[in-house]
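Narrative summary of target 7.
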Amino acid sequence: MTLTDYLPVYRLRLRTDRLELRLPDLDDLVALADQAAAGVHGPDFMPFATPWTECEPVERGRRTLRWQMGVIAGMTPEKWMLPLVVVLDDQVIGMQEVGAKDLKVTREATTGSWLGFAHHGKGLGTEMRAAVLDFVFNGLGADYATSASFEGNGPSEGVSRKLGYKADGIEHHVLGDQRRVDNRWRLSREDWEANRKHEVAIEGLDDDVLAMLGLGDAGK
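Modeled conformation, tokenized:
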């Protein structure tokens, strides 16, 4: 038996012109922790509802490892998250997550991501989100994808608008003693199809993977 016999989702590969997205092995986890330790964002803006980056570099890497392992270990067909590493030229450069709750019924998935700071501003954020959107709509047959970005996070908002998302209301979060506005974004299948700009190859998506993601006999 191999790892993919027990966890078929490890067979998944999403490929674009420049990127490969996959679940991380141990070497990938170390490389991702290195990216986190080196920095994820500038000092003047916190993009995360949980400020996990506010610590020393080694602790940022350690938190990354723990979070990734915990999310993978906690997957169930009813509620799951795939914390995919993003690979460019054989180098792990960041993380793109995609997840859902009761996907068979809701037909809705959500995404989140981060890139090592050195890789910002190169269009990679758009390309990696396009990869998981193709997986969500074309691979899993979802009707909607959602995302969110704090007010003032221009790059994330730009990716959402470029890919066809529409504003979907706001939420308030408290970070420290400050109220932060979180802008919600929603993408329908129709708007995704109208704004597709990246070709995506999905590999390893079979009945065993679909069952792990809550689709089971219902398929797509």
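The chain is about 35% helix and 30% strand.
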